[in-house]
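Example record

One chain of 309 residues, shown exactly as stored in the release files.
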Amino acid sequence: MARDKNTSDNYVRPIRRLLVGLLVLVFLALFVLWRIDSPRVERIRANLVDTFVPSFSWALVPVTKFVGMVEGFQSYQRIYEQNQELRRELRQMTAWKEAALQLEQKNAKLLDLNQVRIDPKYTYVTGVVMADSGSPFRQSVVLNVGARDGIMDGWATMDGVGLVGRISGVGENTARVILLTDSNSRLPVAIQPSGQRAILAGDNSPRPPLEFIESPELVRPGDRVVSSGDGGVFPPGLLIGQVALGPDRRLRVALSADYERLDYLRVLRTHEGEKIVDPGALIVGPEPLTPFAENTEETDTQDEEATDG
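Predicted structure tokens for this chain:
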């Protein structure tokens, strides 16, 4: 066995040397061939390139695929970064959109307040709704205007469309507004065009009922409801809403004011009427009968003279 191994080594080494020598000669020949500057050699070189180089294109396929994968990964990374940037911009745009919608709603409210036509003799103060009562048994809101702005109890408040309630409680910087839907609210109203008088009684529902109607048969759903001014509670003619027939078959009022979004309220300054302190001053007394008194004195003087005579 050792002899056979030595024999094979004796054959392999010469063959290996022969092959290495041949390869060296081939490479030297190619080098010399490529270095020779001759038209004939140039044609030979061109033929060799055209013959052997295209056949090696299969060897470049893995390299080409790998380069394509690297480029695709880099492109995917760039797309991912752009996608993340677009997401951040989208979140910012969403926040700006919400802010723009809120500003648009506030602007619409202020425009509505400015477009409401009221009697020129009434002036007003516009306040921002700070909070509501948050109770199912009490319907009220708080404004950021108070005694420093000249606000007084009992003044009417309106939104951009109709009457909302009245001032009930004034602080230095805030005021509370009792809404028409509050159970403690009672307001004399007039129903047009029939001219019927009634009381709008709040019951903590969106559509308060009408009570004490003079002639209910003259009232129809859709009739306009305004403040009557009776009792001096509110100025007359302020829009409240329209008559509607409730599920309980009672006549109710669909309020014109948007109670779901009370952002700004207009407080109407109501000038106090003249107070009557002495009711007797209204009765005109009889004029003094001065001539009659003088005649009486003259008659008495004549009688006394006649008596003396």
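Notes: The helical segments are 2-35, 39-52, 57-115, 290-308.
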